[in-house]
Amino acid sequence: MNDMNWAVRSGVVLASGDGPLMGSCPMLKKSILVSSALAAIVFAVPAFAQSTPPPDPKPADQSDREVIDETANDIVGVFSVPKYSRGDIVITSTGVVESPDEIGQAVTVIDRKTIERRQTVALSDLLATTPGITVTRNGGLGGFTAVRIRGAEGEQTLTLIDGVRVNDPSSPGGGFDFANLLSGSVDRVEILRGPNSVPWGSQAIGGVINVVTAQPTSGLQARGNVEYGSFDTVVANAGVSGSSGIFKGSFNAGYLKSDGISAFSGGTEPDGYRQYGATGRIEIAFTDSISLDLRGYYADSRADIDGFQSVFPYAQIDTPEYAKTQELYGYAGLKVDLANGRFHNRVAFSIADINRDNFDPRFSPALSFFGRGRSERYTYQGDFALSDAVRLVGGAEHEDTRFTDGTVVKSRGVTSVYGQAIVSPVDRLTLTGGVRYDDDSEFGGHTTWGANAVYTLPTNTTIRGSYAEGFKAPTLFQLFGSFGLGNPNLRPETAQSYDVGIEQRLVDGKIKASLTWFHRDTINQIDFDQNTFSYNNIARTKAEGLEFGLDVRPTDRLTLSGSYSFIDSTNLSAGFVGKDLARRPHQSVSASVDWETPFKLNVGATVLSVGDSFDDPGNFSRLDGYTVLGLRADFPVGEKLSIYGRVDNVFDEKYTVVKGYGTPGRAAYGGIRLRFE
After folding, report:
1. Do residues 136 and 656 lie in contact, with contact meaning Cβ atoms separated by under 8 Å?
2. Collapsing DSSP states into helix, strand and coil, what is residue 155?
3. What are the CA-CA distances from residue 253 to residues 87, 117, 241, 279, 413 (Å)?
4. Could you tell me how far CA 273 lies from the centroid of its own chain?
5. In this structure, what is the dihedral angle of CA atoms 158, 163, 165, 166, given to the nearest 10 degrees?
6. DSSP structure class, residue 489
């Protein structure tokens, strides 16, 4: 669950661990702002209640070339002929391209337009406003950031960037630190809530977050932005994309520098953050049915951090410590279509290489801690449209993972096979089922099942239901950690989840409301055992709740959206039965409104209200809930240039999400954005 308890005792500093745990109250503070914002959305709905019924979403006739053009830019390439031409495509549910109408699981899609409209810099800030997600950050920008889905651990969120699994093999829990994931090069994000191990394997217990960076375009395009603001923060991004003959490509680069705030809530020394980053991808279409896809992602980050006294009572203090992280993710995939485009094949190789270095100048200019994690994955995936109603998806994978912290050098291999069937026996009904088997060189074999169904009524009411299993293999650190902390006899964490949801579209899709109930049981969860001073399968948890989402787009100029989450995440471990899991607020609400005025000025606001929680497993240390409001504006100057600005935490709310760590107060930023098409 958390690794800092033993880290403090042993004097080890973990760059990717949460802060000290010191679990949730159903009451929300300062909810007047949220209630008002949601009321504005609700009152806006009746004004658009009369309209002709939406058209029946019949399958569109498409040639093979049209299908390729439509889906060639997707993360997994060309794998299916979409049944419907309406709406976004989604790949997190089965690992292949699907229409949302075919998916029985809860998925949220965030596009580039939303990212730019919200003026988001750290992607985690945008994720925090989506249903079922809670985010905690240790201090300001660059501090360790955990994203929890439906009350699961942050390490139980599987994260993909351009098809590469980026969870860190060298961190104790194998999680991904969202601190260094900035939005400058991101085109879209898919958030799948709930376990989904059949297509993705280990770690997808809470859910899957799939990040897709800027993709190649047919014509030459370029975009860029520069902004400056509070804490002497500078942000710059630039990107270009285009095509020539059989080649398509895109390249993006970004830079961020901020003096920041003190990571330690009682400190006076600001802790800064800096990142250089770049992404790129090239697509080569040798023929209409054979293509090569190359992708790369690089980030070099430095974050100042505050640590602890080196002697008892090990209190948190201002320190000159800092951490450096280098991330390199790569992907190469060959795609081949057979059987007149009905059988799509992909062979791919991906690599994730993460280097973490910690320094504490109080004692020495040399490294105080380092971690090196690397994973290499070889995959084959086949997607065969047996008929218009039956689609078979399957594949085989092998992954080699290794890590070292200077004391221990360990590696492992896992070989996996999986198969899924996507069946539409009647119009508007899609059934999906699958099974996966993983053979791990360290913990042995494990089988995972999953199934879901979705049916759309003639009233444009969509009903969804799913059963999903998830598992998380023990990390190399948990198995073989230094100082006797590891336990080679660990079993994988496993989870079973059920959810049922309903979605209603009205007025040609201008109004969309959704409600989902979920329940998840997790057993054999790995936690640090204070009795043996090592890792053991001693934890059990349960989570259930409701997720509500509302999206209203009455005109092209006005967008209103809101979400509400109730998550009851309970500890069932010995000694903590009935306690709330740490840093899991029961309730959170967000509401956003964006309006383009008649004179082209775009104005918007987002309010996020989070309920009380606890910072420790014993529920002794309460974290009060909080409400923050952000305002923004964007004004176009001609067709290629716009000027924008925002104010975060308008009312200068004082709040805490991790005990002992600070949070930013009121802050203002302004910038310019360029786009050439």
Report:
1. no
2. helix
3. 29, 20, 12, 7, 34
4. 21
5. -100
6. T
User: φ and ψ at 239, to 5 degrees?
Assistant: -150, 150
How is residue 152 annotated by DSSP?
A: -
Secondary element (H or E) of residue 598: none
Question: Where do we find the tokens 């925090």?
Answer: 128
Tell which residue, 178, 204, 202, has the closest CA to residue 193.
204
| Secondary structure letter of residue 123 according to DSSP | H
Three-state secondary structure call for residue 100: helix
Q: Residue 526 corresponds to which tokens in the numbers above?
A: 């790995």
Residue 596 CB-density burial (10 A; 0-12 exposed, 13-18 middle, 19+ buried):
middle
DSSP category for residue 105 = S
> What pLDDT does 88 receive?
65
Element (H, E) at 127: helix 123-127
Inter-CA distances, 619 with 20, 353, 544, 616, Å: 14, 37, 19, 5
DSSP code of residue 366: S
pTM above 0.85, yes or no: yes
| DSSP type of residue 618 | T
Do 207 and 189 form a contact (C-beta atoms < 8 A)?
no
Q: Name every residue whose Cβ is closer than 8 Å to that of residue 57 and which is 6 or more positions away in sequence.
A: 84, 86, 101, 456
| 53 preceded by a cis bond (ω within 30 of 0) | no
Question: Hey, what are 565's tokens?
Answer: 């989450």
Residue 290 C-alpha from the chain's centroid: 31
3-state secondary structure (DSSP) of residue 508: coil
Vertex 421 angle, CA 418 and 422, to 5°: 135
Q: What tokens were used for 554?
A: 């009455």
Q: Any bridge partners for residue 112, and if so which? A: none
Question: Could you tell me which of 394, 384, 401, 432 has the C-alpha nearest to residue 416?
Answer: 394
Give the residue carrying structure tokens 């009851």. 568
Rg of the chain, C-alpha, whole Å: 24
Tell me the C-alpha distance between 225 and 83, whole Å.
37
* CA distance linking residue 197 with residue 470, whole number of Å: 5
Q: Residue type for 146, please?
A: A
Instruction: State the sign of the Cα–Cα–Cα–Cα dihedral 304, 305, 306, 310.
Output: negative
> Which helix (H) or strand (E) is 394 found in, with range?
strand 390-404
Locate tokens 């390490």: which residue?
155
Tokens in use for 199?
């297509």
* Residue 546 C-beta-side C-alpha neighbours within 13 Å: 10
Q: How far does the chain reach from its first CA to its final CA, in angstroms?
A: 48
> Are the CB atoms for 396 and 422 separated by under 8 Å?
no
CA separation for the pair 148, 522 (Å, rounded): 14
- The CA-atom distances, in angstroms, between 298 and each of 180, 331, 348, 378 are 11, 12, 19, 20
Q: What distance in Å separates the CA atoms of residue 208 and residue 420, rounded to the nearest whole number?
A: 18
- Residues with pLDDT less than 70, the chain: 1-88
From the list 102, 98, 195, 100, the residue with the least C-alpha distance to 499 is 195
Query: Beta strand 207-213 with 157-161: parallel, antiparallel or unpaired?
Result: parallel
Cβ-contact 229, 667 below 8 angstroms:
yes
